[in-house]
Amino acid sequence: MNKTLIALIAGSAMLSLASQALADEGYQNPSPAIASLVDAKLSPTTRLSPNKQWMAFFERQRIASLDELAKPELKLAGIKLNPDNFSRARPRSKYLSIAFKNLASNKEISLTNLPKGRILSPSWSPNSEHLAFFIEQSKQANLFIYSIKTDTLRKVDNLALNSVITSRPYRWLPDSTAIIANKAVNITVEAPDDNVSSAVPIVSQTTGEKAPARTYQNLLATPHDKALFKYYGLGQLVKVSLQGKVTNIGQPALIRGFRVSPDAKNILVGHIEQPFSYLVPYSRFATTWRVVDTSGKLIKEIVRQPLAENIPQGFDSVRTGKRSLSWRNDKAATLVWAEAQDNGSMKAKVKYHDFIYTQASPFTEAPKLFAKLDRRYNTITWGNDQVAMLSDWRFSDRKIRSFIVNPNNADEGRIIFEDRSYNDAYNDPGRVVREQNAFGRYTLAIQDNRYLLLTGTGASDQGNIPFLDKYDITTQKKERLWHSEAPYYERVRDVLDTAGTKLITVRESKTEQPNFFIRDLTKKSITQFSDFPHPYPSFTNVKKELVKYTRDDGVELSGTLYLPPGYKTSDGTLPVLMWAYPLEYKDKSVASQVRESPYEFTYIGYWGPMPYLAKGIAIFDDPKMPIVGIEGKEPNDTFRKQLVSSAQAAVDVLVEKGIADKNNIAIAGHSYGAFMVANLLAHSDLFKTGIARSGAYNRSLTPFGFQGEERNFWEGQEVYATMSPFFHAEKINEPMLMIHGKEDPNSGTFPMQSERMYNALKGLGKDARLVMLPYEGHGYRARESILHVLWEQERWLENYLIAK
């Protein structure tokens, strides 16, 4: 890129200043090069069949229309729901089409003539013969079953699904003979009215017990809300045959969740009970968990969990009594659960914090103590009668620990598999490969009761180097079977055989988009399986570099630098946009770790900073902003100092490389990144301008903790005040663009946060702009909104960064 082009861009920016006041009405579109990114078609989501013969491809619906977002929504008990079809509003993963490809023959099948609507929750049957999914339509959500063998699709009639509480409203029986689903009961019944005659005073009263709760949104607020929650949440468990026959199981209830036992004979089902709460979401309402058979007959009531408004403060605090109920995957019908031994608080001084219990069908014998844990229970990955993997964790030191145990005596002879900070990517041993067992459930893939296979990202100081390892339980030693090699970034998608010699991988490079490959380690061969096109060919010549540097306290940092196509060092400095997000650590060395690969494909998505390469701006993406707690201190005790120090180091390295003019750098971020932006503008003069999206600025509005801060406002008033840029708004002397969704449900980033911050800046005479997006949440979904955000950011950068 030459200086003449940069001058032309700057000139156009000056012209835009004159028309700024005229362009504030309605939704706007950015320049064509940036707008094109919104409709770029990315690689589909995939599901490999359990028998590893078929890959299903699901075209992602990345964005919605404003009309979709404007449809009526109800906000009840922490849920946004669509009252027209008894479904969750705005599901995260939704698809537009389905196709299949056979790994051996390359045969391809596409499902055609699907009804209009969002495709949700696709799931293979355990025997790989069918794929189920449901489609949300205007008045109900319908279940479909596709046979890969006969290439036939069946819509289940007389069944409207209810996904209001159970967001995944169906599950396969492990024997693949049928599906258990949650049916919408009130699909033909009118909703309760809200009128003056039903209005009553809304009363809440304390009990004298501490009941700290995060600032949840969309909670129940009135007795009418409670009635609506009961109406929309009411479901009926049903059994659906492969021929579409629907049979009721038990009675209608507010179904919290359901799980079928591996032998397909029992169902663990949770029913939400009254009283409801105005303080916490439905996940903490009183719930009774029972085991019933597939006809609905009660086998055993397992626990009555009371309303949990008083869980102790702390990120690893839990409700008392039985919790985390599940089935043991390697047994026919054995329940597993955890029980806190510390009244739910990890701060309690006790020898053991959790006990794990099991109880086998027919549940007539007393539960058996399976394991004692001196930290908080995390998960169990089952294998067989000799091998399982048990893990626990603790927030105070960010530790996670995993053991290989003998399920017959899990407290004796434990083998430590990993013991590390969960922020420590360099010492992550990887994910244990699982395989389907005789029950159709996934358990540890164990060879000779001795060997496990591990796949992981392989984080290192040279970047991520994905791998496949063979782990010997007896010797606790690993053998590396395969690893990614430059100039490619390749990772294991699945292991296709028990020996770990045949893999399906995803391979990419800086310039080659990700595609699937089948790799045979014995034959040393690799075959391309998919051929996805490049999503944004006009950005193929973007230059990418992993930059390492050090801040003044010795913490090593890194970030990824992107330079516009055609840029040469001789062109001189460029305007720079940094996009970052602070993270908290308890260890300096862990905070310094590199978590990217220099060989990854260069994504130019619309969400972050990358579109502005088209404006001749250099991008410094994810420059690390670690906040480290050392010498017994909490990370946030020195938040501001460490944040400014990290930003200073990032600015310095770009100036030293000759890329940036220190007076022409912008800072931007989303959510906690927006919080970072406001703090950096208030407490430094490193940046010319800032863009802050969906942020929080006043921590007194989140008094029972935020991000990784466990202390409440009254325990840490100085920390809350020091970290809140709202309290220091008078120090902000650079222009700041703020963007926020008007319907943001995220606990901690109420839309009020941006509105109050803007009012403060306006009242103080600062240069600020606030954009509130109708119908949008914490992230932005509508095409119109996304284009407008891109336009706002583009214009802001033209006016305050490119223009000189």
Low-confidence stretches: 1-23
Structural class determined from secondary elements? mainly beta
Separation of the first and last Cα atoms:
18 Å
Mean pLDDT: 92
- General form: globular
Strand content: 25-35%
- The tally of helices reads 10
Task: Tell me the helix content.
Answer: 10-25%
Gyration radius, in Å = 28 Å
The largest β sheet comes out as: 8 strands, antiparallel
Strand segment tally: 48
Give an account of the 3D structure.
It is a single chain. The chain is mainly beta and 804 residues long. 14% of the residues lie in helices and 34% in strands. The chain is built from ten helices and 48 strands. The strands form eleven sheets. Strands 12, 13, 14, 15, 16, 17, 18 and 19 form an eight-stranded antiparallel β-sheet that branches. The protein has an eight-stranded mixed β-sheet with strand order 39-40-43-41-45-46-47-48, with helices on both faces. Strands 28, 31, 32, 33 and 34 form a five-stranded antiparallel β-sheet that branches. A hairpin with a 4-residue loop joins strand 14 and strand 15. Helix 1 packs across helix 10 and helix 6 packs across helix 7. The longest helix has 20 residues. The radius of gyration is 28 Å and the shape is globular.
